[in-house]
Structures are given as C-alpha cells and as structure tokens.
Amino acid sequence: DAKTTQPTSMDCAEGRAANLPCNHSTISGNEYVYWYRQIHSQGPQYIIHGLKNNETNEMASLIITEDRKSSTLILPHATLRDTAVYYCIVRPLVGKLIFGQGTTLQVKP
Amino acid sequence: EPEVTQTPSHQVTQMGQEVILRCVPISNHLYFYWYRQILGQKVEFLVSFYNNEISEKSEIFDDQFSVERPDGSNFTLKIRSTKLEDSAMYFCASSTSSSNEQFFGPGTRLTVL
Asked: How many CA atoms lie within 13 A of B26 on its CB side?
C-alpha cells in the first residue's frame, strides 16, 4: 500500500500557484519523496523528487518539512494543461513506484 | 526529446488468447518496467527487468505473465492466456539506472472479451 496521504481533489485558478500537500509520516531515512502526474490516462510523468532539501526544476518546486513527515508540490503558475492526477510517492532511491490514488488537480480558467 | 513508445495503442482479444504488448524504451536506458492500471483504479507495478532478467515482480505477475527483451531494443510483456480481469492500460517505463526517474510510455489499452 501507498505510504502517503493526499487530498482527493483540489481546484486552482489558472495563473495562480497550485500547492499540493502530501503526508508521509512513516517515511524512512533512506526514502525519497517523488512526484509524478498523470494527465487523462496517459502514462505517468515524472515531476520532481527530493530527500530532505527543497528542490526546484523547470516544472515545479518541492518543499519538504524539516521532520520529513510531509511535503508540498508547488506549480508556480498553473495552466489548464496542468489539470491532472498528481501522485506523491515515497520510496528508496531504487526500485518500483507504488502509486496511491493521488490528488486530482483541476485548473480552472 | 527521446520517449518510450508502445504498440499497439489498443488491443482487443478473446479470453484465453495470448497477447504480446510491445515497448521500445529510451535507447540508453538499462532498467525496464511494466505497470498496469485497471480503469478507475491505481497504477500497479508488475515487474522490473535489468540485465536480461527480472529484478522484482509483484503478486500480480504470476505464471501467466512473462517479459522479454528479444532484440536489444524491444521490451515485451506476454500474457499467455488472458482473463477478463486482465483488461487494463499497460504502461511500459524505462530509466537509465534503478535510482533515476522512470519515463513512461503512452500505454496499451488491453480489452479482453
């Protein structure tokens, strides 16, 4: 079973920042936080991952709390194309991905 | 930008028939995966493959399933005798190493009648 808890759904206005929370209170010291998204039954798409430091790339930022029990994915300027299911996954650096139900983000005009 | 490709996009088969789903991973990738997603459900891991052997498999991946890398470019998933409950989207993924992000293909929709 997935070791993360995410809200089932969220809305965001186009152009605003989308902040997607994830709880992973049982995360182990060697486990990373990964974020993927799935746009309308397409293959999952990697977004970002981190261990304990905040991370940023061209798609998003990942903020991990100091105790590593939760994190937030930030899409700085959401567009309609960002409407998708977002998955927060914790796993060791190697191995399979275990997907939960994710958060359905609806970006509205 | 290199991408994982999968064929066919949609496969319809009769129960009990064998199907082979094909994937072409990104060319310099060494680790290969199959996942499936039954309609409306979670994406589920099936199997990972490295150095011409299975490195990990799930409980779903029973004796009816097999994987192969027949020619150094293709990566296939075979289901020997399909069941109705095998109907799902099947996603292939690849990565440069087991620690890097996995890149997913667009999926094959398998419908078993």
From this structure: 16
Residue B104 has its nearest CB partner, among A43, A95, A100, at: A43
DSSP string, A2-17: ---B--SEEEEETTS-
> Mean pLDDT across the stretch A11-39?
95
- A73, burial (CB in 10 Å: exposed 0-12, middle 13-18, buried 19+): buried
Half-sphere exposure of A109 (CA within 13 A, CB side): 0
Q: Quote the distance between the C-alpha of residue B13 and its chain's center.
A: 17
Query: What is the rounded distance in angstroms from the CA atom of residue A3 to the CA atom of residue A25?
Result: 8
B contacts of A87 (beta carbons < 8 Å): 43
Separation in Å, CA of A59 to nearest CA in chain B: 14
Lookup: tokens for A83: 């409407």
With an 8 Å Cβ cutoff, are B56 and A38 in contact?
no
Task: Give the pLDDT mean for B97-110.
Answer: 90
